[in-house]
Fold:
Amino acid sequence: MERRDFVKKTALGVTAAITGFDIVFADVLPDGYEPLLYQDPDPFKLFGKDKEMVILNDKPWNIEAKAHLLDDRITPNKYMFVRNNGLIPENIDVNSWTLTIDGESVKQKKTYTLSELKSKFKQYTYQLTLECGGNGRSEFDPPAKGNQWTVGAVSCAEWTGVRLRDVLEDAGIKDTAVYIGYHAADKHLSGDPDKEPISRGAPMRKALQDETLLAFKMNGEDIPLAHGYPLRLVAGGWPASVSGKWVNSISIRNKIHDGTKMTGTAYRVPCNPVAPGEKVKDEDMCIIESMPVKSLITYPKSGAMIKQGQELKIRGHAWAGELEVAKMEYSIDFGSTWIECSVEKPANRLAWQHFSATVNFPKKGYYEVWARATDTGGASQPMILPGWNPKGYLNNACHRIAVKVK
Ligand SMILES: Nc1nc2c(c(=O)[nH]1)N[C@H]1C(S)=C(S)[C@@H](COP(=O)(O)O)O[C@H]1N2
Ligand SMILES: [Mo]
Structure:
């Protein structure tokens, strides 16, 4: 889809929603008149992203943050990474949008309008960490194909919606249920309407968790178009690919969901560790579930300079998939020694946690500050790249920033 077409075909209201601007006199705009705002739109404006965000791909759109942009406790849209596998849906009509619950293991196939979902079920709000399974891919060697994410494919926004569990139970779940799979309104890059860009899912135990939402709000507002407007599945702590955007159906499956990107090397890693570059048989690949423990120093920006004798306050976030972060440490001597620092409790389960420390440097020179989180299961971040895998998933190596003391 050309950007220009996208803009022309998108209802003014929706475009206004994604750009964050309201066209006050939209109702009196002459027919065929294109507001300046939409002429030659750039992706930053189109998606309401900050200029410092990094575009990794424009077909489909993939945009990442830098560590220092993720400093907010709750990630605002302008700093939220975009990961698309296909083309963003056009001409979304919220009034006719429906969600169908179907599949082998649904008691009764049922379709809900958005307003039915909102009025029939109780609404919940949670802060949920969404990290792309491929975040950190750029470090792998031999390299892995795909978007070369560095550290910025992670977010923790506040999502509001209804519990997936409540909706599934309303339709009825048969005893044979094993998995759910989502289907969405985005289009395959080839334009082939029979192909889905992505259709992933999760086992029932994840689908039925309190925090697994069918969300219609992000940070208190309609979800921005690029992030799944008007309805999105949000399953925090798992690879964000489970959190289907623009969802219009959820299938309750009697087997592991076999949609696009559920098989082969997609979102799967060797069940047992392999040597870098090794070929892995299909039956030896396992689906990624909970994401591993990880952290990010979001302040200061790497390259900070301070004066000798001056303390440096650092801060950031840490998360641990389904678990909580139990301990946070930093090192200024390349991991030889570690100093424990404070980490807050999460706002709710599956929200990232905030850490901070006051760092003192013994003398002038170049330093790196490294951060290391440990989860409640006792696992901590590796200092170097963890297990190689064909698609470069799950890189949770310690984040580090450069600091010069003058
Ligand atoms: N329908 C649909 N849902 C999707 C995707 C997609 O391409 N289409 N990408 C998935 C992947 S791989 C990731 S990492 C997250 C990215 O969410 P974000 O763009 O809101 O940050 O959405 C997931 N949900
Ligand atoms: Mo992803």
